[in-house]
Amino acid sequence: MKTIDPSLIAAQNDKLARHVHHDYEHLGEQLARRNIDIETVRARVAAFGVAIPSWGVGTGGTRFARFPGQGEPRHVFDKLQDCAVIQQLGRATPTVSLHIPWDRCSDWSELRQAAEAGGLAFDAMNSNTFSDQPGQPLSYKFGSLTHVDAAVREQAVAHNLECIAIGRKLGSKALTVWIGDGSNFPGQQHFRRAFDRYLDSTRQIYAGLPGDWRMFLEHKICEPAFYATVIQDWGSSFLAASALGPQAQCLVDLGHHAPNVNIELIVARLIAAGKLAGFHFNDSKYGDDDLDAGSVSPYRLFLVFNELIAAEHEQATGFDPAYMLDQSHNVTDPIESLISSAAQVQRTCAQALLVDRAALDAAQHANDALTATGLLQKAFQTDVTPLLQRVRLDAGGAIDPIATYRASGYRQRVAEERPAVKGGSGGIV
Ligand SMILES: [Mn+2]
């Protein structure tokens, strides 16, 4: 696998290593004054990982257009190579989440070996019954798992079971199910019957789940169904996951909520119920914008992580969230966006680890709102950059991964091998 020459990473790091050690030491002193052991935080941050979605390494788009970049990956092996580069430099993304049928290949054991060679493993499998594929007998235009026609539902169930079968060959342990099913007109769909059909279909998928797998149900408020979506919010997702059984949990994509919804509160509710599957991280200003994680509302991301770290701290039952980035890179090099977004998520995890939990607990009991909120802000306002740099350096990554990536000329190199693709319509990925 043609990734980046380690000697280039070492040469780039040499220029900065002295500063990193100095800054890290200084941060350690600052944290020690707050009774925080930087080494404990560092070990926890070093163990943090967020999965890369295979489709994320291609340039995204909107429903108006897609403007491809140079050296777009041609197939799943190219995608894995790009993911390996992201992990090589950033060291926060040890796993890849595949999407079937986009990542279909003829030899899954070869793919597994390629992943291992690139230092990667496979995270959750993602099924696709929201678009039609070439040669597919029945259309999903009017739904898939909830379609009124039983034959379409059967086809969609069979596809999900195939995703599980492929995932077993790759060492995956979860299936993520997101459907676009719903309606665009009032009256078009019988709400309760559509939900019943969803339960009936997902029960068949659930029955095919290996004992050590989980099934992640992903909700989304709207799009492509713009009037009503079958699994539109965490409530519907929770009802379905509860009906299915303990292996079914609710996945929170940060962009799949109405504006101003208190997502951290939803996260707390799902943790309390033992039903939090994990996250698709991204950011937004208006809707499901699929912007880079933490690029618009870093404090909101922090408040989500505050709930996660609190649950970890309090050893909440059944708490084992899976983390993935799910964003669309329309104007940036996807590799750069994914490296920086993973670092942003990692940074937020580190900041949430700095919250003084005992002091917060005391402030809450004393009804001291100002102190309580100040404790969160103090953690959020701490610059943990030296800690992240040190974690990357120790793991063999790049202190400044974006600068190293640009210095490597990787994109230009792969552009020579990978023919340019045309732009055009149909950009949503
Ligand atoms: Mn998602």
UniProtKB/TrEMBL annotation:
Lineage top rank: taxon: Bacteria
- Keyword annotations for this protein? Isomerase, Manganese, Metal-binding
Which InterPro entries does the UniProt entry name for this protein? L-rhamnose_isomerase, L_rhamnose_iso, Xyl_isomerase-like_sf
Q: Keyword check for Manganese, yes or no.
A: yes
The entry lists its GO molecular-function terms as: isomerase activity
**Protein name (Swiss-Prot/TrEMBL):** L-rhamnose catabolism isomerase
Per the UniProt entry, what species is this protein from, by scientific name? Ideonella azotifigens
